[in-house]
Amino acid sequence: MDTQYFERMESEVRTYSRSFPIVFDRACGAHLWTTDGTQYIDFLAGAGTLNYGHNNPVLKKALMDYIERDGIVHGLDFWTHGKQDFYQTLEELILKPRGLDYKIQLPGPTGTNAVEAAIRLARRITGRSNILTFTNGFHGVTMGALATTGNAKFRDALGVPAIGAQFMPYDGYLGEGVDTLDYVEKALDDKSSGLDRPAAAIVELVQGEGGINAASIEWIKRLAEICKQRDILLIVDDIQAGCGRTGKFFSFEHAGIKPDMVTNSKSLSGYGLPFAMLMMRRDLDKWTPGQYNGTFRGHTLAMVTAAEALRHYWKDDTFEQDVQRKGEVIRERFEMLAGLLSDVGHPAKERGRGMMRGIDVGSGELADEITHGAFQRGLIIETSGQAGEVVKCLCPLTITDDELEQGLTILERSIRSLIE
Amino acid sequence: MDTQYFERMESEVRTYSRSFPIVFDRACGAHLWTTDGTQYIDFLAGAGTLNYGHNNPVLKKALMDYIERDGIVHGLDFWTHGKQDFYQTLEELILKPRGLDYKIQLPGPTGTNAVEAAIRLARRITGRSNILTFTNGFHGVTMGALATTGNAKFRDALGVPAIGAQFMPYDGYLGEGVDTLDYVEKALDDKSSGLDRPAAAIVELVQGEGGINAASIEWIKRLAEICKQRDILLIVDDIQAGCGRTGKFFSFEHAGIKPDMVTNSKSLSGYGLPFAMLMMRRDLDKWTPGQYNGTFRGHTLAMVTAAEALRHYWKDDTFEQDVQRKGEVIRERFEMLAGLLSDVGHPAKERGRGMMRGIDVGSGELADEITHGAFQRGLIIETSGQAGEVVKCLCPLTITDDELEQGLTILERSIRSLIE
Amino acid sequence: MDTQYFERMESEVRTYSRSFPIVFDRACGAHLWTTDGTQYIDFLAGAGTLNYGHNNPVLKKALMDYIERDGIVHGLDFWTHGKQDFYQTLEELILKPRGLDYKIQLPGPTGTNAVEAAIRLARRITGRSNILTFTNGFHGVTMGALATTGNAKFRDALGVPAIGAQFMPYDGYLGEGVDTLDYVEKALDDKSSGLDRPAAAIVELVQGEGGINAASIEWIKRLAEICKQRDILLIVDDIQAGCGRTGKFFSFEHAGIKPDMVTNSKSLSGYGLPFAMLMMRRDLDKWTPGQYNGTFRGHTLAMVTAAEALRHYWKDDTFEQDVQRKGEVIRERFEMLAGLLSDVGHPAKERGRGMMRGIDVGSGELADEITHGAFQRGLIIETSGQAGEVVKCLCPLTITDDELEQGLTILERSIRSLIE
Amino acid sequence: MDTQYFERMESEVRTYSRSFPIVFDRACGAHLWTTDGTQYIDFLAGAGTLNYGHNNPVLKKALMDYIERDGIVHGLDFWTHGKQDFYQTLEELILKPRGLDYKIQLPGPTGTNAVEAAIRLARRITGRSNILTFTNGFHGVTMGALATTGNAKFRDALGVPAIGAQFMPYDGYLGEGVDTLDYVEKALDDKSSGLDRPAAAIVELVQGEGGINAASIEWIKRLAEICKQRDILLIVDDIQAGCGRTGKFFSFEHAGIKPDMVTNSKSLSGYGLPFAMLMMRRDLDKWTPGQYNGTFRGHTLAMVTAAEALRHYWKDDTFEQDVQRKGEVIRERFEMLAGLLSDVGHPAKERGRGMMRGIDVGSGELADEITHGAFQRGLIIETSGQAGEVVKCLCPLTITDDELEQGLTILERSIRSLIE
To answer: What domain count does chain B have?
Structure first.
């Protein structure tokens, strides 16, 4: 495998190829193969983009049929048959059963586009400019979205201040026994707190990049209530935590809230195809024609696979139940592994919800050793958290019990080899 | 065709479906078909995204083969076989023959991502924050790119000031006999002009959304020189004008310049798939790992079709010659049509380069009447320009002479019906 | 007194004249007289600008002598005899005895100018743009300073986002038992907290406009330590709390710290004349010539009275001792008054340091009734705090014991009349 | 004279003391004296702040009487007798005779405060954020005002982008034969010019710091008309050009326009005391109480001398006539001097209006040599313009014919000594 070629041609900005410096070729389900045929189990799965696995055969068939019959591929924002099928399937199988009356905007095929659109719409509706966001939040890196993203490495690279958002501490940030919403509420009602009255709050209910931090159900409910009382729109960024990752289609279903807007992307197409969506409460659709655009907002192939994924996995609660069950398997194993580490002087903690799980091992160095050891043994797994201190599992939701066990066993071996 | 369904479910932000309120289903080459089988000729072609036509059979085959054999679809920024093939083909067929020594960044699959990345890199390299941009320029609508985009409708929707860029008049903006670069140069060298010393200038050499304004070769050369003398990086945004649209692969080849950075997208994948690329002079690759990211920067399907498109159309200059020939056909017809309009009191002008052509008919209302009439007659064609006053032709470069003639004839009939 | 004339000619932006809608004419020491000769005791004293009382006779003599002999009045930033006298007196009587090796910048005659200069210098030195500021802080309303000021009424009026600063909770803001610096420290060291690495922290050690909040000595020391460890400059804004108000010349003397920069204004001239100063650690003077300017930075009359005030009041610790003694008198009385209110169901609290004292009465309405009642009885006294809930005393430091007793008695009567 | 002391204690930001490195002590009329008694003629006059000369005896008497009788010195924004006298005198002698129905805001004692207030008010009224400003404009250096100021040295020192304003070319900037307002008008009406619809345009009708550039009367009238037609507020910044400097009290009187807002400062107090004022059309006073504040907005001494100056110099047109006459004297001499320089290969040009005059000598180096030579011969005179290329005369309007002749003679000698 000629990796020097990549090093010569590809910008230094590259990241994952530094952790996994090999050349991949094929993939199916929870497996990846390199050009020379070596197989890996995939616990990264497109950083949450492949909830239904790589090249899922059900979706693959729909995709190939559509291409074969010359269905519209690039549709700008034309009305197309493919789009209609996606809208209808979404409405019937997802929105209606959950009592959600949303309108849909396809703002371009990347999550950051959905966030940029949501923020602008919130400002337009309220006439306010500030967006309330949370420590360790990640909402994209184009400049508008980046204002709500906490990561210094992106913020520093911007070259100008990221304007239009202010940070408040996420659930748990101030330690045990402090409800961070006390601070949020006080600052919102204090006329000289420096917290400008927000148009909206944007929040991930489980923070992925931030370290698999799951806000408590009570905290989420209270946040929704605080926003409602003050006419602040609540935007749930479900880009990583949505599409079943937490054990429900939307991460907010666990708390029984109905956000004013929801952003989706990543696993939305189901096949790893670029796709993003903003949903907004019907009465909030205050856009005028063309106020947000983008060349690829009509990427119809993604709609085709997205509709098929909904039909296949979300027509009843079987899939959801299965995800919850496997989530428990991972949780238990991670608790055990955290215990192993803690016992030998590396205080560690399991965290997450559903199949969005991690082990906070306390340091980025240790986490890197663990994932590196796993890679040596045939498992692709990555870290997250502000210092990369959380080993995270984002394996396909469709992973078989055997594959899951294999992956967890590799991870366990990697950990044991470091501490024994 | 149930368009009411769309009106109920889809945000008011929708645009093209207002001009063409029908539901499309299939497409091939320069043709589109609605769900009920009506055929249209496509002179919009994904707003410059379908230079090789809809669902080009050569690319289709490569795409289906790749999907069939479970090639990696979603590759984050992993090294993949598909990516390597794209890089190598690009290097061999495009960069080397043109003497360009660029490194490549795939910053996410939308043009606006490439612009955001270019801007940040320019700031990082120079330590300056300002980006010089031009009247009527369009470089995307995410917030960082939007600072360089002139359109009021997007800028107003932002809700906060778009920071980090300043506008100067594009070639021709101050009328005949005024070289706008005199002003640019004076303001750059004047210590109290208010024009902050720029990190970079970003420019389209033919402005698409801005009204098919083609900068003169002299102006382009002088701009490059002005930038070089003052250590200002030159970013050519070739998102719409690239991939052969102007009669050369890159729009800047006509002027013989070598920009410091180049952004590409739209027709890059060749099949309408989301894809974008930033190329930078080798020594300018000052990124540190992971300073720019995005979930879909490894959309490998797009790389597969992109490589195939390069192999098929760019191995020699046959295609390029053909584009230039057809560009002349359009130019002559548009001159004639402009003459027709001028003769009856609607002063009109042909403009553009290669197969990126328009007729400035002086008012958005008249342009709308013309394109509406064309649509009634079976031709999809749109307007651009600050008031929508330019009827623009962005038909597939692969259009046959017959199809082109049919389309032009429809357009002519639409115009004649209005003035006769 | 013709107040209708003022209402017709003066902008609605006026404030104090709404609380005290009469026309003043003369003033001396702690007294003001209206045009018809009515006398008031002044517990507002120019909002902290008249520490030595109105028209202090010692300073008056120096001022009149200087004007009489045609000393330079407007000196741009020329070197003048008056300026030299001020610098030397400041160095000998204030800086040297306190072990402070500062250089001096006179950035214009208003406090907000000193803050704008401090912020820019901090950015220049560090190459970072963010300024860490605190809830309820007030540092001026010109746009640069306003970014660090918490008040919504000014921030909303700006019309664009105030950029370049981020807020953290001031001492006590998160309630008993929470050290807000735990949060500050965590967020500073967390790579995805959203708190951009600051160039400097700016802080009032007793917040005046924010509600007479005195940070604890421990908090101040820890803040200084946190900044030092991370190479963040510490700017103490001593505009209101300086010049002896807290019982020491500088408010930071109580904590034994040496800030990197200090801003002064308000009582600096001693006579109520516009004057402001930025002091910076000698090695931080990284300005290049003329990078900050302003027409009135050489307001020499203010330097003349400033030097005279230093000579008269700060040659030894007699004045300082007297301020501390009178501070205790106010504190005791305010504690008693807070007790009175608390006893009848209006929980109230004394707060402050030295002669910068307030009673937090829990609501702006009650505070207004109290100050209004005091005004009816001949006492000028105002409120502060985010909702105007703190009745504050900023009487001249030179007030006699009798005058102080008279003022406090009026205040007590006003309170008693409301609750009895 | 101990200048080393200043160098040790005073920040490197100092400017004028670098051109004139001596220590001044006294001043009267058009003369300055150093501490050792050396006399200088003053053609700088506080950079336009001393239109009535240093320590004008008429104003001095009023000032000393007021201080003597303990008139209010520091009045916050209380109503005071001194303020009433100023308002009434202004109304009677200045506003009424000129048909101006303005309300008054005293936003703090510096010009930059008046500009910040004007900008915010314009945004508040219109709901737009952009301010249109002009190349080479100078409107102050606090961050809000700085966005409208062209000078790179201040803009670079800000450390963040100056937001909220966009620049357009001032009259003459694009050379002979190009009316820059053609560009302004086109960009305003062009929906993709990148020029955001402005809340207001701010303009100096003679640019002082920018190089004594006097806009033509036609340009001013057309600018006013362009603004009016588009509901853009016109703010005339008369801080340097006002108070008679151009031969009329307001610089806009020459063009017969009535701006929506006017900022004044510099010579407004008449005695060099810090003072600034914003005047706004009565119906534009949309401030709510306290939305703009500042400690020294009630600097009453400045109001006392301001009122006296109006009474003494503006009760009829005698003074105005005298200024126009002396302006001609300067103009003729400057034309002659420009001719001298041009004859020996230094193309030079006289410019300005009234007694705001300059000679553009083509280079900052030459201008410095001229002013340095003048200083050696007893004349204080400075340069302006983007590269300091304009020798400017801002001598007191009250200068006697003899003194003016002496100063001009020194200047002529300095020039002749360089070229002969």
So the answer is: 2
